[in-house]
Request: fold
Amino acid sequence: MGSESGNAYHIAQQQFDLAAEWLQLPEAQRAVLREPQRELTVRFPVKLDHGGVRLFTGYRVQHSLARGPAKGGIRYHPAVDLDEVRALAMWMTWKCALMNLPYGGAKGGVVVDPAQLSSDELERLTRRFTSEVSLLIGPERDIPAPDVNTSAQTMAWMMDTISMQRGHTVNAIVTGKPVAVGGSLGRSDATGRGVWLMAREWARRTGRALGECRVAVQGFGNVGGGAARLLAASGCRMVGIADVSGGYRCRTGLDIATMQAYAASAPHRTLAGYIQPDIERCSAAEILETPCDILIPAALEHQLTDANADRISAAVIIEGANGPTTPEADRALAARGVTVIPDILANAGGVIVSYFEWVQGLQSFFWSEAEVNQRLEQIMVAAGETVYNLAIARGITWRLAAYLIAVRRVADALAIRGIYP
Ligand code: GLU
Reply:
């Protein structure tokens, strides 16, 4: 996130520029889409448990509203900055367009290490941040969701805060809520399920049995943990897992269910101290170099770079995280024949089921989990097929193919709407 060469916003702009060039977009459209439409920075005080007050900084960026209300998560992380949020907002625009959801793209973040705060402090921070960004958000305007270090509970606090301000319950203001307050069945598993679907489709297309693949996953939260659980249930050999405490490798296979139970049980919160026969420790960065067939970066941006791309042994990289691969690494991996299934396709399961949750909330009519999963599968498999076919037909990477489809759709919406006034 921090260093200049790793600036996520510059990377997002480079990815856009390449697609704009291929599409021969008119200059005015390029200028509009290269930068966010709206950016809000907020600074706000939060009362601490033991007296005193701390000041926090947060952001909400709406990259584009051309195709509908803005959509995207809120992350809590000490390294959040405006450029990172801008990049993440832009990626949401393309992700929603690629999935043909009637949304633009947004993202938010607060500069905070949530592990340093109590649950009461996090609740006060969330409620105050929500109040500060309430001038931008709303069911028809901008709908937040969970992201790194935020959860269904965070969304419940956001929903309750806006509902208290307005004097009535406003379910559709956020997605990824607990089911008890208008969330959708299947939402918490949706991103991991989408990653698993992409792994299954890749295996089918390349004539492999998914159950014979070796898998390494960087990140063990909602996305990495969810994908790992489904892949393990499909018979994959899970040869590497990393979380904030570092990497855990085992040639004969890690026991994902036990690891998840360990990390979820107090006082662990992470995999630190986890032991299993034949386990080897490494860093979270080294997990990417684990000998495997399927590699799933599901943590943060800027993990696969020109510094390690040549040491990646996987046949396919499925981006559970947003922005884990730099353009230089993309080129190096493509030259070596490694397929990269890009973030805006691979991790779209979450926002797809967010859309289902928003639709269900607006109609106050709720679907079964089987229906949610079946519709999710339909959208992701069809989008994967379209991207794959274009990549093959034009001899380009999956990322460029996905961008050509997504950017075209947003540019078309801009052109058809015209310029006000
Ligand atoms: N934070 C997730 C993402 O990056 C989900 C966004 C949403 O559901 O709005 O796609």
User: Anything to note?
Assistant: The chain has a mean pLDDT of 97. Residues 190-346 form a domain with the Rossmann fold fold (CATH 3.40.50.720). The pocket of glutamic acid is lined by residues 71-73, 145, 147, 175-176, 322, 347, 350-351, 354 (CB under 6 Å). DSSP finds 13 helices and twelve strands in the chain.
